[in-house]
Fold each of these.
Amino acid sequence: MKTLELFAIACMACSITSVTAQTNHLVAANQIITKPDGNGYASAVLPDGKILVGGNSPGKTSANLTVVRYNKKGAVDKGFGLHGKAIARFGGNATANSIALQPDGKIIAAGTGNDDLAVARFNADGSIDSSFGKNGKIKRDFEGYQDAINKLILQPDNKILAVGYGFESNHETTKIILMRFNPDGSFDDSFGEGGFTAVRVNENGFDYAWSALLQQDGKILVAGYSYTNSAFDFTLTQFTSNGKVDSAYGTNGHIYTDISGFDLARTMAVQSNGKIVVAGYSDFFNGKFVLARYTKAGLPDSSFGPNGKIITAVGSIDDKAYSVAIQPDDKIVVAGYSYNGSNRDLALVRYNKNGARIKVSALTAK
């Protein structure tokens, strides 16, 4: 019988924000890392089994975008970067929300830098890669307010796809954003407008992108949430390979899913049969884990829970799901946190391939 092991970096305010499936193992990155100081939001596993966690670490006046490397036992690898940390400074608070690994061992990290869209690339030893962008970094402002990249994808041609959102100049409404870079960090002019695409999903103008998949036909599927009919719904938007909205998908390129009245999609993964699992949570304050599964064509999969949707209460007060991983046997593992009234516990839920819940775990970090 297969066993499931969890590697969790010690945290103070517990929340699993990234979970990675490896054969019979899961690697999870928690929201607050205690050693070294900082916050972790993304994880990746190197071919030698060492673990990268991306997020931020405190600098003299602001937080820096940071990637930390751990050995297989979870100790900080002091031979990486500066005492185990690879750091990129963006002139203000910066953080990495996503990590991508190149075949040559270089590490791409992206998120936000001084409220702008930010990307950095590091060499395999943790030093900044000065051949990428401008001195190893890319920074792009949308309309002068808060912007963030939440997902990086390295394409087979080594072009780099970044997906997130940006606030418009009114500081209220948002658009989902896609950018594509050439391997050297320059914008790919064949994508969108000069390598940049900004799209309003819904006329209300509150649109957020948190996850993306590069499909076999080169099309890009983006998951997040949009404000529709007085509540947020799961939203899928499909783009062509050149960054244009694919109007043949769903309704004018978009699919909306109402699960519990207030639904926020944060993560997405694809099973071996091509079906797409999207996970997130309901409500900002009294949430539950919520999942939806779609066919390759984007239709709700009626064989998955009631009408393609699943709601799971881990605890009794507030549960948030931030990451999903598909095991080799197509079982689904969803990770996040569960609030027990006094603190947050790490939360894991495993479902069989058709959505029946197998196990719920809420773990308190010591």
Note: DSSP finds no helices and 28 strands in the chain.
Amino acid sequence: MKTVVNIFKSLADETRLRLLMLQQGKSELCVCDLMHALDMPQSTVSRHLAYLKKSGWLHDRRGGVWMYYSLKKDLDPWLQAQLGPVISTLAGDASCRADQERLTFPISRPRINPPVPKKDCQIRSDRDIPFRVASVLASIC
């Protein structure tokens, strides 16, 4: 009985419902994509994603510094049966449609360029090695 209560508690929040709606039909989404779609801070989105994962809805994967979330592929049939009517009801909601539209536009992530040292700089110690690496990277790019 407690499991059923926890499952319905996980669906009792608008943000979590919007997250599930965004995940529907997608292979996986990065937290930053979800932040952009919901127009919410990272801490809020991550907290709700963790709750959905703990409740059995989502699977997560770390890729470097990024976290990716997707609906569980082996989602319990009972959970899948609960999700179907919820998704079909939310499909007509204006905020969910707006979330989907924001998700379709790519996020412009800033490119991080390492600092490039001056040409006449000499490496004087081990602490200057990162500048040598930066100059090699700059000449390649």
Note: Residues 110-118 have pLDDT under 50 and may be disordered.
Amino acid sequence: MVRVRREGFRQPVHHGRHEGITVLRTQPRHVASRRVHWSVSGLVMLLLVAGCADPIEFEPLTADPADTPMMGAYVPSGVWNDLGALRALEADVGRPFDVAHWFTSWDHAYDPVPVNDLLDGGRIPLVSWQPHHQGVAAIAAGEHDAYVREWARGVATAPGLVYVRPFPEMNGDWVPWNGDPTAFRAAWRRVAEIFAHEGADNVRWVFGPNVTDEPRTEANRLEHY
């Protein structure tokens, strides 16, 4: 599971699925508590279905990760310089993770070290790429093309798939890229076009919205982003 951490929040709830990845993010306690009965109901239904069905036969893994469920994790100490904390968590879980997640901002150049270390160990890197000081309108206008091109060229040299999650939780008012869906869409398309032009066909884009729209207004609906 990929856990997204944000200050002031504690309880993890399901956030969504991206190419077979179950993404978790943290929510306020009062939000998480409202979802407990949904989880219990889903578990009861799952048990009922399992009890009535034939024994499950597990299929072997296929070459395309999108076709198989995967498990991933985010470790607060990161994966920038070594994978010690990730390996310790894997030892506790009893299996290696398929995906390892971390955060970086648009203030940092592409770093091949964590990407290549994870790929060398058979894991898929998942990086949340956050423009804290670069507005989506400026990105859409091409003001940061040189920086995006550097990232695209770096990802293109990676020896495997790289999951990139730009502008995460865009429908939440705690991130600076919230509030302008039109510019957001234009920025995303421009970034994706630059990656395609640079031959980074090993990138897989992860659309990572918040579980609820905040604020809950028509203009801020997830469907507009």
Note: The chain has a mean pLDDT of 79.
Amino acid sequence: RTWMALRERSSLDIPEHVAPLIAHVYDRETRDDISEPLRRRLAKTAADLQAERQSQEEQAIDRVLRRPDDDGRPWELMTEPRAEDRPEIPLALQALTRLTEPTVTVVCHYGDLSGAVLVGTERPVDLKTNPARHLRTIIEASVSLSHRGVFDALTKTPPPSAWKAHAMLRSLRPLQFSANNIAIVGNWSIRLDPELGICIERSAE
């Protein structure tokens, strides 16, 4: 619908054209002057969207936390115990506040864990045996990644043993970068760019 709204325009005037364009894209009615293949495509995408919304509504019903004075059966809340801070468990078993792509939080550092230099710092710290001592610095050097290939590769690897015992660290994964700001995870190359931030592309290796 966005393409249909823009295909006959050579320019846009802001803000005059914004409201009509939004109305055109989100209007439920289908224009009469479109081809039959495009009409079928719009019907299919509309059906797919409706099916996705229905699925999301059903998930929301399953995951909702009811009010304390709700008349329902409170023991139903424990029929599927959830660990919302464990990204490696199936998405259907995670506790969620919104429906998004799965993410994994990584701690960016240079060097091995016993003498790691966290991104944005200069002094080596011990992340292998006593990570809780540097908790604030660890959190400041962490970032959430939603790339599916990177997510799958990282969540297959358990966190360091010392991290498992700490509630704020057990869901994180260390991500070691080389001197040229590159980290290889599975088939993916993760690059730290000073202007773009995290850049992910398929590894050439």
Note: The two ends are 40 Å apart (CA to CA).
